[in-house]
Amino acid sequence: MKNKFTAVGCDTRAIFRDRHGDFSFGCMSSCSNRLDVSSGSCSGIGCCQTSVPRNIFGYHISIWSISNHSDVLEFNPCSYAFVAETNFYNFSIGDLSELKFNQSTLVLDWVIGNQTCEDAKKDITSYMFTDKTICIDAENGPGYKCTCQDGYRGNPYLENGCHDIDECADLEKNPCEGKCHNIEGSYRCSCPKSYYGNGKKGNGHGKGCIANPSYLMKILVGVAMGIIVLLLSIGFLYFGHKKRKLIRLKEQYFKQNGGWLLQQQLHERDRTIEAAKLFSAEELEKATDNYHETRIVGRGGYGTVYKGLLPNTMVVAIKKSKLMDQSQIEQFINEVIVLSQINNRNVVKLLGYCLETEVPLLVYEFVNNGTLFDHVHDPNKSSKLSWETRLRITLETAGVLSYLHSMASTPIIH
Fold it and tell me: pLDDT tens for residues 270-307?
């Protein structure tokens, strides 16, 4: 129903008749005062409306007031009736006193001739259609209409009036998920390499473009490899930076602990003192299980002594000094050089040193039986020392002191 029959006014009745008088219909509107009426509503109070059926070729309208507007004359002196397109009119209370338009808009349906499409096609001379148009039978009685075929637009009643639509030209309404190819009266979609499907968008048009499982697997493998390479690169850079930082820190400690001074002294002195080994920080950390408490064998004002096991299974004592004053570095280096020269079976031998840590580390041969202090002052141990053993310890101690005072290349006064 494209048109509607509308009557505006209170105390009003209107009748619609077709021109042949085959049928009629109408509507009635009533209201007692202005307050009863609501704008926008056309359901019988101030305004009534009904649809006009199809197959109407002409009409006549009758309208009258039941009581000659005597009760509503103040706000509704006149009534109006008209036929208009379904959505043309929207009722307003102000229309009761004065309708704000002079003419309405009708939707007229028209067709060609009085034949159906099938009959019209029999007479080629009068048939108006081409290969780009479609014939449609009229909905209201005999006759037919024209329209352009799908994929074309324009005026179907003109020669060459229907033109091809380029579906690919509008990127926002591009019907293809893949690549769009315009063809006469239609279009074609294609998928990229390693994809399959009809390439069209939306439900009901196919599956679009779907990656081949093998290609998808390649993509996933490529992405995974890319992530792995990225993580390895980040890890490599991180650990490389960390290693360089550690190397710089070791160089700083080496210089801080007098390493350059020691190397200079060793170069200038007798080559035989180079028997003392320069250990790395990693070697001594591994030998002491990272300086675990279970490896501690002694503590004192000088620092802490750890028991260590070198890769060649040699057991050593590693002396970790307390923080050293920079003013004592030269004295410490001299001690290392002097201790490196001592070669006496009753003196604990200095095997090496490490200057790559915050405090210097000295590596001595390990003495299994503890200190003399323990054997003398521990009642359990002192009771086992015979006079002969005590005398031997005393004589060997005196001999060592004599060696240090007079026989060492650099006298050491203890």
Answer: 554 455 788 888 999 999 999 999 999 888 767 889 99
> Which residues fall within 8 angstroms of residue 46, CB to CB, at 6 or more apart?
8, 9, 10, 29, 31, 36, 37, 38, 76, 91, 93, 96
Tokens read off for 17: 């008749």
Rounded distance between C-alpha atoms, residue 355 and residue 359, angstroms:
7
Q: Is 121 exposed, middle or buried (0-12, 13-18, 19+ CB in 10 A)?
A: middle
Instruction: Report d(CA 329, CA 193) in Å as an integer.
Output: 73
Cβ count near 385 (within 10 Å): 12
What is the per-residue pLDDT across 26-65, written as a single tens digit (0 to 9) for each? 899 888 888 888 888 898 899 999 998 877 878 899 999 8
Q: What does the alpha-carbon distance between residue 302 and residue 328 come to, in Å, rounded to a whole number? A: 13
Count other Cβ atoms within 10 Å, centred on residue 147: 14
| Whether pTM exceeds 0.70 | no
Distances (CA, A) of 26 to 5, 18, 37, 104, 392: 8, 12, 20, 18, 144
